[in-house]
Write a structure and sequence with these properties.
FAD/NAD(P)-binding domain, three-stranded antiparallel beta sheet, six-stranded antiparallel beta sheet, FAD/NAD-bd_sf, Amine oxidase domain-containing protein, 2 domains, alpha+beta
Length: about 325
């Protein structure tokens, strides 16, 4: 288990600057016995005629935040602070996160099968080694990668050491509320690409998503998201009401422009950033059972943190001789 550091809390938003280069990635996942012949993961699983088009598709999936307008009004009150307004640490995929999923699915070879709506009930272990999973039927395998909540791993497997279970229980999770507002016009207050925080009594993190990709809102309209942390001791209804009141207080003229509203209550990160919070290791006490996801890597946030965890997992699989088989 890894404990959260103050450094992560202070620098976690600079995720683009803490990236992995292609050369670093190749060194991480290349076959150890013959590094001169190393191929990338994508090249090793894709037909040669698909690789170029996939790379082009991935490159086109993200919109740059460089061609920006300056912020019209950086501070509309002492409590509303615009951050990363004309900088590069933030991005948003064109056509939404579904475009990233589509690119991943496109990259998979025809030999890959995907089963949906198939809940894993048990992870099967024999003599300290994973042998498969039980779902709608038994699926036997030499290796299993678990991407659910690491904290919930003991609910699907019995053969875990007590100390390890206690460590997993130390992973903190936080629910969040996201309010999506569709506006009848593009407001001057959101005339930027980036994000802002309201840091008074009920803090939020807001981002005008349609400024990154105009297709996410009708022509001349605007889509803005506001993310809040939910107080676990209060009802969702009360927390939602308080969120709307905060938005309308922070941006007084926005309410008259709202033509669409939607709320989402989720656990955005499988491990929350706290002073003494813990993150799970990718390796588990069960041989060839690995973990992946946002509760195994403390860098960055969201899909970027998830991607970091996969890069780390590939390196560990390579070290264990389970990547190139």
């Amino acid at each position: 288990m890894k404990e959260m550091s103050i450094h992560r809390i202070l620098t976690g938003s600079n995720f683009i600057r803490d990236s992995v280069t292609q050369e670093q990635f190749e060194n991480l996942v290349g076959k150890n016995e013959d590094p001169q012949q190393t191929e990338s993961i994508l090249r090793s699983i894709l037909p040669s005629n698909l690789h170029a088009s996939l790379q082009a598709r991935l490159n086109s999936s993200f919109t740059s935040s460089n061609p920006l307008k300056n912020v019209a009004s950086p501070l509309t009150s002492i409590g509303r602070l615009t951050t990363n307004s004309v900088d590069y640490p933030q991005g948003y995929p064109r056509k939404g996160l579904k475009s990233v999923l589509n690119a991943v699915l496109y990259s998979l070879p025809t030999t890959v099968g995907i089963k949906t709506e198939c809940e894993v009930k048990r992870i099967l272990v024999e003599d300290g080694r994973v042998v498969g999973v039980e779902a709608d039927e038994m699926y036997y395998a030499d290796m299993v990668i678990y991407t659910g909540f690491a904290k919930d791993l003991p609910s699907v497997i019995d053969d875990l050491p007590e100390a390890y279970v206690d460590d997993l229980d130390g992973i903190a999770r936080t629910r969040s509320l996201t309010i999506w507002l569709g506006l009848d016009e593009r407001l001057r207050e959101f005339n930027y690409i980036g994000s802002e925080v309201w840091f008074k009594d009920n803090p939020y993190w807001a981002m005008p998503i349609s400024n990154y990709d105009s297709s996410l809102a009708p022509e001349d309209k605007q889509l803005v998201g506001f993310a809040f942390v939910i107080d676990e001791k209060k009802s969702e209804k009360l927390e939602t009401k308080k969120a709307y009141e905060t938005i309308y207080r922070a941006i007084p003229n926005i309410e008259e422009h709202v033509v669409m509203q939607h709320k989402q209550i989720t656990i955005p990160e499988k491990a929350a950033v706290t002073i003494d919070g813990k993150f799970a290791d990718i390796r588990t006490p069960i041989k060839n059972l690995y973990l992946a996801g946002t509760d195994t890597d403390s860098r960055s946030m969201g899909i970027t943190r998830a991607a970091y965890s996969i890069v780390e997992m590939l390196g560990i699989l390579n070290e264990d001789g389970n990547l190139h088989q």
